[in-house]
Amino acid sequence: MSQKIVGMLSSYRGLSDRADWLWKQTPHPFGLWRNIQMLAKADKPDFLLLYQFDFFTSSKPQSLPWWKRWRTQKKKPTQPDFSSLMRGVSKERIIYLLREPPLEEVIAKNKANYQAASQYCGYVSGPDNFAPNPDYMPAIWYVDNSFRELNEMGSPEKTRSCSWITSGIDRTANHRKRLDFLKLLRENEIDFDLYGRGLPDWTNGCGSVDNKWSAMAPYYYNLAIENYADNEWYASEKLWDALLSWCLPLYYGGAAADKLLPPGSFLRLPSLDEKGMTYIKDVTATLDAWHEAKDAIAEARQIILHKLNLLAWLSDFVGKFS
């Protein structure tokens, strides 16, 4: 049986011209996974994925990030007819997946997008209870190693204790809370290496990295701190990247991780305050926790690669139509 072609449409900058989107998440060339082939730019796909697509236009330049565009919308933003963008795919074969967390600042935008998506898409989902089909966001990751390498390799050589990859973004209350915690860790001289874009000078960051593997694989532990931790649906690449790099995540996030991953594959960071700081200091003082978790990490990696993988989710969705 020939593979069904899955196209993609997104409002994320940098994805609109990506011919190879998701190809690294399969061991086969050209985006093949079981019964599907992921060809984001396909003119006439069998199925179409709207991946974090923003239905609303703005008078502001489209080069602005979505959150600035949304803030500048009028109370009743213009929603044009998007039928021409759906590439002739029938409604029941169009999927809308929202992957950003339901932060207070964007809940209204998310709800509006769900409503608009329901006009064009047979399946509309997101990691919150406002979605027509609340569900976990299938996994994508930003470790750029090949699927075969990630699937077959054992743990790489570990030479340092702990890293954290984050950014200096401060546009929401949750972002600012995370930066406050970072400041607390620095003021108390907690030992970890910091990487990321746009970090303030006071953070003493090491700079950004092109491949997260470079800033995770040499470390035993990784601080995996979500932007949102208040529902049972949201979990992001912060967790997948750390585990695929054979780190033991010290994870601050919601209940989704407990349902998706095996016990012992990550540790719960209790809070973003002095209690959390003490927890990090105690765990990273030795390598005992990583060694105890190694088998669980190996199991979690296989779950991410083969079950939580967005390609696997798309394959299952397409399979319902055969």
TrEMBL record:
GO cellular component terms, A-Z: membrane
Q: Which GO terms describe its molecular function?
A: alpha-(1->3)-fucosyltransferase activity
Ranges for domain Fucosyltransferase C-terminal: 156-269
Sorted keywords for this record are:
Glycosyltransferase, Transferase
**A Pfam family per the record:** Glyco_transf_10
The record's comment on protein family reads: Belongs to the glycosyltransferase 10 family.
PANTHER family attached to this UniProt entry:
ALPHA- 1,3 -FUCOSYLTRANSFERASE, ALPHA-(1,3)-FUCOSYLTRANSFERASE 10
Record's protein name: Glycosyltransferase
Which species does the entry assign this protein to? Hydrococcus rivularis NIES-593
